[in-house]
Amino acid sequence: MAREFQFYVVPTPIGNIQDITLRAIETLKEVDLIACEDTRVTQKLLNHYKINTKCVSYHKYNEKERVEFFINELDSGKRIALVSDAGTPMICDPGAVMVVELIKRGYSITSLPGACAVTTFLSQIPRNNEQFSFIGFMPRSESQIKEVLKTYSNQNLVFYDSPERIFKTLDVIKSIRKDVKIALGRELSKLFEEIVVDNVSNVIEHFKYGIKGEIVCMVYAEENSADFDIDCKISDLKKKGFKDKEISVILSTLYDVNKNDVYKKIISM
Question: Quick one: average pLDDT of 1-9?
Answer without folding.
Answer: 78
